[in-house]
Design brief:
This protein has 373 residues and is an alpha+beta fold. The chain folds into 3 domains: 11-100, Rossmann fold, CATH 3.40.50.20; 129-189, Dna Ligase, domain 1; 195-363, D-amino Acid Aminotransferase, Chain A, domain 1 (2-Layer Sandwich), CATH 3.30.470.20. The protein is 28% helix and 28% strand. It is built from 11 helices and 18 strands. It has helices at residues 19-30, 45-48, 61-69, 83-96, 104-110, 113-122, 170-177, 235-251, 285-288, 293-302, 329-337; strands at residues 11-15, 34-39, 52-55, 73-76, 99-100, 130-135, 150-154, 164-167, 183-189, 195-203, 209-211, 215-220, 223-229, 256-265, 268-275, 315-321, 341-345, 356-363. Strands 10, 11, 12, 13, 14, 15, 16, 17 and 18 form a 9-stranded antiparallel beta sheet that branches. It has a 5-stranded parallel beta sheet with strand order 3-2-1-4-5, sandwiched between helices. Helix 1 crosses helix 10. The protein is globular. The protein starts with 10 loop residues before the first strand and ends in a 10-residue tail after the last strand. The structure holds adenosine-5'-diphosphate and magnesium ion (MG). Adenosine-5'-diphosphate binds next to strand 15. Magnesium ion (MG) binds at residues 261, 273.
Amino acid sequence: MIYRPIYPPSILGVMGSGQLGRMFTHSAAKLGYQVHCYSPIFDSPTKYAGATEFVGKYTDLNKLGEFLDSVDALTFEFENIPEEALLFIEEYIETEGLRVFPSPKVIRISNNRETEKNFFRKIGIPVTNFLSLQGKFTDINKLSDIKFPAILKTNQFGYDGKGQRKYSTREEFLTDLISITNFDHILEEEVPFDIEISVIGARFPNGKIVTYPASKNIHKNHILDLTIHPANISEKLKKEAEEHTKNLLEKIDYIGVLGLEFFLKDDLLLGNEFAPRPHNSGHFTMDSANFSQFDLQVLCLTGIVDDLSLKTFPSVMKNMVGDEFFKEKETLKKLIENSEYYIHLYQKKEVISGRKMGHINYLGEFKDNLFLF
Ligand SMILES: Nc1ncnc2c1ncn2[C@@H]1O[C@H](COP(=O)(O)OP(=O)(O)O)[C@@H](O)[C@H]1O
Ligand SMILES: [Mg+2]
């Protein structure tokens, strides 16, 4: 299929209105596009970046229709969207010829852990051993295939470790199991990984693929804390992670930007999950790459270029979670003054524990105590 380029000034739509939509809006505005966003939230981070806000439930198809009528193309910054809304968007693709990248088909795969992991397997990305649990679980023998500790994960709507529970032993799991009658979960073996890494990749409408080198990710309380770019792993492993990402982009017929997470154990890369949008671990690209992941999201959606060459520099991204950096006004001042730090705040109205309030990009190699002020 040949896609015509969508030149500025056109209107780019984004489902969701959080910080990812905000950073998408900044990139779109640089090239002279207007952004419209859709979500149930008023006065969102995306609106404050200059987007026109359409507010409605994802299942309010009248409101959603008004929004879709107003845009020249559509992308996602939030993918946990009900099936009803995805079907409605698909109707728009068919009847109105609306451009939607990535496609609802891809969103469906990424929204369900089991479907996602089965897809990884099918295309040759190894995954950790897991068991599918649906409805009432009766066949206890199946548990013998799973080594404990294991993690019970909801198939849908999980993020930042939400919807997950770890069981150290089979007995512990069986005790809990009795109370659950409506499983839509996987039970996944815990991987004693050495490190976690991720690759951000993008595929243009003409099929050309670009990837940034892999980064290393460190989580705190199940929330991404640090991304160190590039990951300090062998060239062979870096190449393998990029090949897996390219393979996924191609086989799923993806257009747009995605982030693919891996566990690395010894020399084995295991695919964990992918996000069908720019990924938190790709925020370093805003200050240490020639094109940021949000620039790529705009360029892939509009197709005004077909290919480009990416350059990145060593950097470290630190998430600002909860009130960590807001207790002392001095801290912000110090960060802004220091020329090695780039600060990005998301303009969220309330500081809540565990909420991502912003991030800091440090230009240079990782060292200890980088973010102690
Ligand atoms: N099977 C596993 N083995 C070890 N750690 C895991 C496993 N699954 C998840 N984790 C840890 O929990 C984090 C969040 O889990 P993930 O599956 O990525 O869900 P989400 O990011 O959607 O909450 C991972 O980045 C990893 O640190
Ligand atoms: Mg994850």
